[in-house]
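seq as requested:
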Amino acid sequence: MCWQPEEQRNEKQGCAKSFSTTFDTISAIDGTLLSGITRDSIIIIAGELGISVREQSVPREALYTADELFFTGTATEVAPIRSVDRITVGSEQAGPITLMLQRRFMEVVRGERPDSSTGSRM
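struct tokens:
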């Protein structure tokens, strides 16, 4: 994960976008660099599934106590984060929200479900 203090961020640098989940709310972690198509798709999909999404700054220490963490990106699609600084996140496996979002995202990518942002199949 690319995690930089705000004053050290470089908008041209790329990496996966990070999300944190606590209970039934996803925090799209503000400051994990660039916006992206996969990230935006996950935010739309989460809304469709009734999962609340907030974009906010999250202190590094809060990552240690998250129920789930996951990356999004072109290559990673939706990938669980198992640990941060060698501290286990949740059960060290993909959690239920991550799995639900992965499943729905892949259905859209494979054309099994319409892309709600365009109404068409990809």
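DSSP finds three helices and seven strands in the chain.
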